[in-house]
Each structure stands twice: as C-alpha cells, then as structure tokens.
Amino acid sequence: MDFSQEYKQKLVSADEAVQLVQSGNWVDYGWCTGTPDALDQALARRTDELTDVKLRGGILLKPLAVFAREDAGEHFSWNSWHMSGIERKLIARGCAYYAPIRYSELPRYYRDSAVPLDVAMIQVAPMDAHGFFNFGPNASHLGAMCEKAKHIIVEVNENMPRCLGGTETGIHISKVTYIVEGENPPIGEMGAGGPATEVDKKVAEQIVAQIPNGACLQLGIGGMPNAVGSLIAESDLKDLGVHTEMYVDAFVDIAKAGKITGAHKSIDRFRQTYGFGAGTKKMYDYLDENPEMMSAPVSYTNDIRSISALDNFISINNCVDLDLFGQISSESSGTKHISGAGGQLDFVLGAYLSNGGKSFICCSSTFTDRQGVMHSRIRPTLAEGSIVTDTRANTHYIVTEYGMVNVKGLSTWEKAEAIISIAHPDFRDELIAEADKMHIWRRSNK
What we know:
- With 446 residues, the protein is of the alpha/beta class.
- It is built from 15 helices and 24 strands.
- Strands 13-12-11-10-14-19-23-24 form an 8-stranded mixed β-sheet. Strands 4-3-2-1-5-7-9 form a 7-stranded parallel β-sheet. The chain has a 3-stranded mixed β-sheet with strand order 16-15-22, with no helix packed on it.
- Helix 14 (412-420) packs antiparallel against helix 15.
C-alpha cells in the first residue's frame, strides 16, 4: 500500500501543528533523543497565548526553546520522568519538577489512565515503506504514550537512526494527527563525561574480576560504568550478552572488540536488548538498521522477570552517596534533586534473582566541594531529605576504590563494619564513632 497521499495530507508546518496545544493541556515531548526541535521552537513562539501548559519528557540533551524566556514558568512547566543537568537548572528556576517512578512501570502508568495526555510531540525517523515512523533509540514508553495521546505529532528527522528489534519501536501513519518535517538537526549526544579517573579504574578492575564468560551486562550512565566497559573491551572475556535499560557507547566498544555474542542468553539469544540509548554519533551509527540490536519498551527490559531469566546477570550502577545501614541514594543529595530512580532498583532486584547474578553499586569514596573541602560519600545516615533508591535489604555489592563488599544478609553491625572498610581512611574513625552512637558497632571490631 502506498502511504504517500496520506503523508501529504497530514504534512503541515510546525507552527500549524502546535495550534493543537491549548492552555491547561498536558503535552509530552517524547523522550531523550526523541525530544522535538522544530515543534519546541514553534510552541515557544506561542508563549504569550498560553498558560499552564504542562510539558513532560525526560533526559533533555539540550535546552528547550520554550524556557528561553525569563517568564517561561508563568506559561509552561516541565515534568520529568528522569532528569539531566539541563533539567536540574530548570528546577532552580522554579520551572521543572520530577515525577518519581519505577521505570519498568512507566508504560502502565499511561495505559492505566493515571497519566493525562492531550498532545504527544515526538522526533522520529522518516516513514518506511510500510507507513511506520521509527522512534529511534527511544522505545522506552513511547508506544504506551502514543496509545494514550489524543493527538500525535511526529517531527521527522533524517538523522534519527532506525532502531530494530522488539515491540513498540514506532508508530503507524494512520495513528498520527500531523507530520512535521524539521531541519534535520544532529541527534543530541551524551558523552561519557571525560576519560576515566584513577578511582574509576580501581573500581572497574574489581568489578571486571567478578564477571564470568557468558555473563549478561547492564551498565548505568557515568564515568565508572564507562570505565568498566572500557576494561571489558580490553579483557579476555568472551560470549557476553547485553540486556540493559540504557544503551551507551561502552557497549559499542565491547561489541567491536568481539566480546559480545549473546550466545548464552536464555532469552533474546544473540540479541543486544535495550530500552533506550543516548551517546555519541558512533553509537547512533552502530544502532542504525542493526539486526543484532533489539529495541524494546522498559516494561520488558526492566521487568524483574526478564532480568532474572538471564543467568549470570551483571548490573553496574552509580550512586550519589550511601549510609552505614546500606541505604543507597542515587537521586538526590538531601533535598537537592540530581537524577531519578530510573531502573536501578529493578536491576538490583533482578540481578540478585538471576542464577549467578550480581548487582554492583559503585562510587568514589569521597567528593570535593566547590570550596575544595573533601567529604565522604559514605555517611552515618543519608543527609536529611535524601531519597532512598535502593533499600538496605536490597543492596548487594558496594564498590569504592578501597574495596568491594557484599552486604546481603549481614546484621547491622556487620554491614556497618563492611561499609566502613571501603570508606576513605581519613573518615573511618569518624564513621566508627557515629556507628557506635547508633548502636550498630561492636567494640571487639575496633
């Protein structure tokens, strides 16, 4: 069937398309690299006409045009499923808010009608011969989002990679209200944050030593997971698999080094499975039309049942800080919002249920503030207001540059002792004293 006539009928300018948006509406901006560009600029031009427009999306890779004006917060608010640094700046301006989620459940939030949605605006790949617009590396929750939206506007970008694989990877023209052809800007990139530090390398070496041949990998974002990926690419490991929430550049390096075959995966054998991806052009080129890749919604990739079905599942994630009870905060420092829950808890739980699986939470033992003062990331208790991402009962391995400990099944004093053993030496006496005050320390261990 030829869809060219329907395409022509639905093709409009960005300014025409955004006339669908009315004051008080909920408007979804897609997700990550699928965040619209021309439509965002067109909506910004309507600022004075609109009030209380509630925008929603996540992991912005560049500033939004709608928030360029100082008074933007009087017209628009940003509601994020997962925050980037750009979004944190909007919080400081009073324009943005985080929506706490368990990421694996996000498609269900839409389908169960808990999430209102008037207009969805998504950047997509060009329509294929079958009438489908591919979401690019953003399967995530966009299929469910489109099911819920009253109106769907797709913004075609010729640079968007076509990501193949699983289900809910695109939308058919018959479901689309309007089509907009943008200016084809480069797909937003997310770097790895610079070269690995010596601390990153020390943490990575400990984790890589725990990975067997045939393991299935999940890497989080940040310097340490990236360092682990680089070390794996240089290792003698073989026949690794990939099943991850976020696809990152490190996986490309591992794959091109010949380490990934997926031969031992019990589900999706020989496929690299992921919920969304953000990285550099190198990664987008690798994902494009690659039949080895399997793009799938997070209701599948992040489901504990999917994760636990894969033997020797290795989950590697960062955190902001942790305390002597084994509570992990990966979202905030006190009430200062930093990121989001994402799927970290899903992978912590799923990896532990996997036959031979392990989850690793890694961080540097310290950080230095803007005044040059060094602080311990390991605290007696989390700072007041800090969000607990992984509860003390669910934390498995914790890794710093000073060592690795398995805190599963330990009593409070054993857990405190183990965690203090991987703290920076300059802070251990202080942590012991605080543990003693909280009655989670035994004198015989001093």
